[in-house]
Amino acid sequence: MSVNSTPEQESRRLVYDLWPEVGQMLGITKYAAYEAAKRGEIPTIKIGRLLKVPKVAFDKMLEQAGVR
Q1: Global pTM?
Q2: Does the residue 67 lie in any domain?
Q3: In what order do the strands lie in the sheet with 50-54?
Q4: Is residue 2 part of a domain?
Q5: How far apart are CA 42 and CA 35, in angstroms?
Q6: For the chain, how many structural domains are there in total?
Q7: Structural domain span for residue 43
Q8: Secondary structure, 3-state, the chain
């Protein structure tokens, strides 16, 4: 969750940052997050040089793992 965002704004977000957001949600290091994305274990889309994690794909990944 961003520092200055409201819960309503968070619910409308379509993507997360791979680091720090997704990495911290999963409790893994920056290196581990990028390596997992590289292996395809974390779903990502590339926007320029940035790796973003689609919220829907991330939630689905967690559901399939039995986390959510």
Answers
A1: 0.81
A2: no
A3: 15-17, 50-54, 45-47
A4: no
A5: 9
A6: 1
A7: 7-59
A8: CCCCCCHHHHHHCCEEEHHHHHHHHHCCCHHHHHHHHHHCCCCCEEECCEEEEEHHHHHHHHHHCCCC
